[in-house]
Amino acid sequence: MTHKLNTYLLAGMVWAMAATAGLASSHREAPLISNDPQADNVDVYAFRSPDSPNMITLMATYVPMQLPQGGPNYYSFGENIRYEIHVDNDAAIVGDEVTYRFTFTQVNEDPTTFFNIRLGKQNLKTTYTLQRSIDGGVSFQTIVSNGVVPPPNIGPRSIESGAGLGAPDYASLMTAAITTASSGEKVFCGTSDDPFFVDLGGIFDLGDAPRQSGSSVDGLACYNVSTIAIQVPIQTLLKAGVSPAPLSILQSDFVIGVWASSSRQQIRTLSATDGPTYSGPWVQVSRLGMPLTNEAVIPIGKKDFWNSLTPYQEISETTLDEYFYNPELALYMDDSQFGTAVPAFAPLRIQTGSLGAYDFRNGKNGLFGLKGNAALAGTALDDAIFGTLLLPAAGKPRSVDLWPIFHTGVPNLPPYQLATGKNGNPLAVGKPFINNFLPNGGDMLRLNMAVPVTPRNDPKFSTLGLIQAAVLGLTDPAYAANADLQFIPNMDGFPNGRRLEDDVTRIELQAVSGIVLAAIGLWYDDYIPGTTASPVTPKLLNVYTYTTGVESNDVAFQTTFPYVAEPHRGTEECGGPLFVGTNDVFGGTIGLNQKPVLMKNFPNPYTTQTTFQFKVNTAMNITVRVYDVRGAYVATPYTGFVSEGEFQQVWNSGNTPPGIYIANLYDAAGHLLQSGKLVKTQ
Amino acid sequence: MNNSTKRMASWLGMAALLLGIGAPAIYASSHREAPLIANDPLADNTDVYAFRSPDNPNTITLIANYIPFELPQGGPNYYNFGENIRYEIHVDNNAAVAGDEITYRFTFTQVNEDPTTFFNIRLGKQNLKTTYKLERSTNGGQSFTTIVSNGIVPPNDIGPRSIESMVGLNTSYEALITGAIMTASSGEKVFCGPADDPFFVDLGGIFDLGDAPRQNSQSRDGLGFYNVHTIAIQVPISTLLKAGAPSTPANILDANYVIGVWASASRPATRTIQPNGQDPNDQGDWIQVSRLGMPLTNEAVIPIGDKDRWNRMTPYQDLAETTMDEYFYNPELALYMDDSQFGSAVPAFAPLRIQTNALGAFDFRNGKNGLFALKGTAAVAGTALDDAIFGTLLLPGAGKPRSVDLWPIFHTGVPNLPPYQLATGKNGNPLAAGKPFINNFLPNGGDMLRLNMATPVTARNDANFSSLGIVQAAVLGLTNPAYTATTDIQAIPNMDGFPNGRRLEDDVTLIELQAVAGVALAAIGLWYDDYVPGQSPVTPKLVNVLSYRTGVNNNDKHFKTSFPYVASPWRGTQVGQ
């Protein structure tokens, strides 16, 4: 609404915060786009480059869940699609300040074969044009022509052998595809490992993360995506007229908002005799800014609509705000709602009586009772400063945390400062920890480019991002001593931008559970002012230590641009299970078939993960426990009911050392049914 | 086309004859097989099966699968059949009448029972809940009659909380599948829903320039743990039978009992994206965007430059389209089984070597003449190679060596006539009468899966049951004393296997690679180069081909013993790597 906008702009001041919401990023997140994988935007990242801190790396991934072995026509960017990365750096001007537009072209170098690569020739060979607009999309200049997209990582015969491309290795193809734009940006477009990680299978089975029965599984491990990465000098992204040397590490002028999209022409016409043709204006079919917005905040009835909007349209679109004021996920963290129906979320409970007064459960009033109170004067909640933005009405408890982090970022003003130094009053001045305030009202990933980089090998580096910065600012003597502005490690983490490592699923679930409110002094129910010794109560620890069960990517990231890991190779571990021949797996031994459940694992030896395969002849409860050779318990890869038939359970052995382990299969009464040897190699 | 009209006329002139063969050709079914359809997964037809139902032999089961590589954990909007797509299974039973005799058309509709959640299933409600209408045409597609309204598609098997628990659907997944088996008003049994992909192949290896079996590592089932969406329909044989055919077959290779089966997906010609994320507006004529009959045709026979075009055509158009015939006469795969071409570049195929000098005379390598030298000779009189019988169909020209085996099995099936009978009883002359083992001849010229419905079912627990299909029937007919004693027609186990129809178990990748290597030629007496007349034809080179394996020989899940036979889909919470 115009009113909303005016009040924001009025606030051309300094702010800051940390709140979030939602679940697993944006793979197949809305019905329409899930059927158009080539145009499906999967994730967006924006971070200061660890090895080149004067540059910001912007990344947008597309085409979810690519099987490395998905031939003969391996996945790639699509033709006739505009893939765009948008940057806003001035909330006073509607629309992008910088827009990068990528378009792709494919040719077949040898149309006579069904192989993708043969004898040095490649089919569906993809190149791109990169155009840039710095006038809000009015005009575009080409800054890369004929950019190279590396081929799919099919296998050693196609990539390294003489019958294929004869390349030294796949990494050399990736490196060779990194190009420098005429305007100075470094660019890479190509297939990579999907940097996102989440237990899709568990979480979308009604929120079973971490798994309550069996181990959690990274549902995106082994899959690739098509990545667009661009490294841009901070100066290029900086708001016009701002000095490139920041005045502070939270300087407001250094905030950018980043989002990505894909668009198709409005009309596609199929022909009975030729390929399709495209005509008409371009229409946005996918977009992404904050992770998981459209996956786990927006309900199914609105997902396609959400994808069609730009962030700039959201300012006048108010019906979707309700999903942030009273998010669906919060229902599962609230015992008066569906809390008991989602046991995995049991550690996540929202404040119902913070400081004895504030209830943030859906439908409650949160801080609305303070509306107009003198206590708010000078804070971000003061109507005189931001209007009714953050306290729009009763019954919208999350208007103070979840809503702004998705729509405006938060300023470095109370209450959005750490409880450190507040002496028990959340509205008092505290220790600054964020300012990513860019009040344009739209869903974007907001990054303050002035915040220093946390080295990835810093012992304090954490995938919890800003949550961990808050924890350090509240508890680490190096930071908790005073309320001065200091660089706290991970202040450059999500939701202040987003690093590849950030565990956004966990952070957002913790945020829905009110952890940000706690960070600014709105403690959990079990903290009674004046009575409880420390605000670090069991309930706070429950939320802070909650984990989804999948905390990091399946492969390591690279330390240099484009940072994403090489794509999984079609012929390797991710290209399908080893063929074990289900006809033989459980046969062969006379008498074995009498057993109610049979177990086998593969691969074995394994390096990180192995899959237990069960043949269940009689439905029953079983448990599989792994022990080391000395008999010490290591893990329980599976426990629960199994019905007749066959199924697999993947087990990630985590950081257990290489060696020999024993896997025991027990029935419900604890009788040992089978015992097998596991061999973990380096 | 003149040529094809002529082709057709000569076939039809012959359709009264009883005919029959055993050749097949090529590899990994049809997942992401062509550039355009790879980007439209909902409409991507992955496989077609047609077999006599083992537990109900008076019926034929037809199965068409769509949507390749469904991740069981692929939420929150799990895979499903698409709206505004016509999914069709086509049956031809009379080559003299152009077009389908029977067409089944499935169209799907989705509703959200609870649009306020991002979960697919919650508290007994399901989003993207899918139902279907099944229509049937028995007049070549001119009119359709609805035979199932509101057919149920089971939800995806998300996990125990969504399916079994009280906060989900409070049922069992098997109950959902059973509850989704419908009976059409015209008597067919029908199932549409997610299933384990019954196909199995080492995709990663095979598309890495033919590395199957893997030369430096263990083979992997590239489709292991993935689901598809299956359309299965069980039809009484009497419904599929050619008009006027006797209700009891004259014998187990009765030519009247041959059907051709193919499947397709079509979309309206014009899609206009609508504002505000509303459903797109689809209008105009229906355009076929995917088709499948024989496995692997468009995956590993048709080269990339023609794949999209192939998907747009119907089998009935194949007849007039002669440029693609070349890919069967001289298949790309044969280059990799020929040491004078790229044979040495594909070590995995080393056991597969095509006859360069069968019987000291016939060279079947690409560009060679095969049996063309016999053209017009007295030796071919009365055989299927006689111009007087089939015209220039099987010996169209020099330099088209596979016109006698690979081409017909994809385009016409083969008749029960010499040379398409087993070497058993031929006394060394491949053109002599031998032991019958196939007749799936339906000479309409198009790519279809051809099944002789008169051929008896091989029980799946029969000791002789084999995923090698007809190749194994041929081996038994050549070597097993129970069948080698006479040239009489006998039911040899696996005569009901691919390429006489296709059973779920059939290892079509293996069979087709063996066929490209000339195993069908050997079966009818065109032995491998190392055969010495007077000695056993079961030579090391033949044994090499017969014992060749791709490294992935069966499905990752057991099939069911009753309709819909496909295994239940993998559960979202039980897989992941």
Can you characterise this structure?
- The complex is a heterodimer of chains A (682) and B (577).
- In chain A, the strands form 5 sheets. In chain A, strands 3, 4, 7, 8, 12, 13 and 14 form a 7-stranded antiparallel sheet that branches.
- Chain A contains 18 helices and 21 strands.
- The N and C termini of chain A lie far apart (58 Å).
- The longest helix of chain A is centred in the last third of the chain and has 10 residues.
- Chain A is of the alpha+beta class and 682 residues long.
- In chain A, a hairpin with a 7-residue loop joins strand 12 and strand 13.
- Chain B has 577 residues and is α+β, with helices and mostly antiparallel strands.
- Chain B contains 18 helices and 14 strands.
- In chain B, the strands form 3 sheets. In chain B, strands 3, 4, 7, 8, 12, 13 and 14 form a 7-stranded antiparallel sheet that branches. Chain B has a 5-stranded antiparallel sheet with strand order 1-2-11-10-9.
- In chain B, a hairpin with a 7-residue loop joins strand 7 and strand 8.
- The N terminus of chain B is likely disordered.
- The interface between A and B is large, with 122 and 116 residues.
- Strand 12 of chain A pairs antiparallel with strand 12 of chain B.
